[in-house]
Structure of Phage tail protein:
Amino acid sequence: MADGDFKAQVQVEPVYNYTVAIDTTPDTTATWSPLCAGIENFSESLNEQVQQFFFMCGKGFANNYVTGMAPSLTVTGRRVKGDAAQEYIFGAKYALMKKRETQLQISQLDATGANTQTITCNVTIQNIVEINGNATDPSQISFDLAFNGTPTLKSTPVGG
């Protein structure tokens, strides 16, 4: 192979290509505010409920069945005052019940680049940490967006 003829064997997708937003006006028409400014890391967890059975025909080896899940997205970064998404989240820090609930959207292009895949779900904002870090550092933040119910999965043609 000559120089310049390299072709990637896999498509690597940096996390910054995902668009993550929350609804900052959940009691009215949705206002989608991106989780972007100050945000350094997203970590998805499916929190699966797995039933494991050792049937005789398996000769000591198990069969596993995912029978449920409680997905969540853990978000970490730095506090940016004035950012709509962060103001909404940290404004609810000492609130309970409905005041901690909103919607989440996660979007990305599919492998072909022809469609946008979007996950939308009702979520509860939990485990909010606003004050964290050394005296001279911007505050390190974290919170979880825990899915409530089944997410909606949608594929839309780019530009459509």
